Amino acid sequence: MDGLTKNLTLTEHRTLGSGPALVLVHGTGPGSVMWDGIAERFADRNTVILPDLGGSDVAEDDGGPLTLEAPGRQLAAVIEDCGQAPVDLVGFSLGAVVVLSLAATRPELVRRLIPVSGLAHTQDEYLRNTLKVWRDLSEDSEIFPRFSMLMAFSRRYLNEIVRDAVEELARGFRAHPNRIRGVARYAVDPDNARRLWTLPEDLLASAR
After folding, report:
1. 20 upstream amide cis, omega within 30 of 0
2. What is the pTM of this model?
3. Angle at CA 180, nearest 5°, toward 71 and 185?
4. Is the confidence at residue 112, as pLDDT, over 60?
5. Which parts of the chain fold into alpha helices (H)?
């Protein structure tokens, strides 16, 4: 586990395997451990880099408000520290927004970009209100993890697993202070968010 400080956040990252660099960026929640069931499958042909960015449960920072720009700068610092740019980037949920932001601001660090289940756009009222309810439930230790679980998994999946497994999932979505700040980070100014997600034309062309 390697660590470096960027934007008053101690950003830890793990590496597995060897080969072209593949960076897996977590969403809101516990951090890079969300990739533990997948990362080793790529390690036989890639150097897999697993950062724990600000807002993850394990990140250490000054406790101030989180922005969308900060984890992009932290991610850039991790990639530069590993010395393997440009890299392939995969981001899930909030991680999708982070990798899009990095590709827009530091395209020289990105070879290929795969955002998964990120925000579709900044004018989605259903999503905006869902995220507000999610954030406002943070003080309820029983309801917050269950609502989080419902946002993360489909009805079909929850009905396919046994009830004990559902309860275990719910316990995993506890309202960690960093997690709450990570949820609040979604409430950004729409114009600023659009600026962050405007990708360079040459990067878009290479992805087609």
Report:
1. no
2. 0.76
3. 40
4. yes
5. 39-42, 69-82, 94-105, 125-136, 143-152, 155-160, 163-171, 177-184, 190-196, 201-207
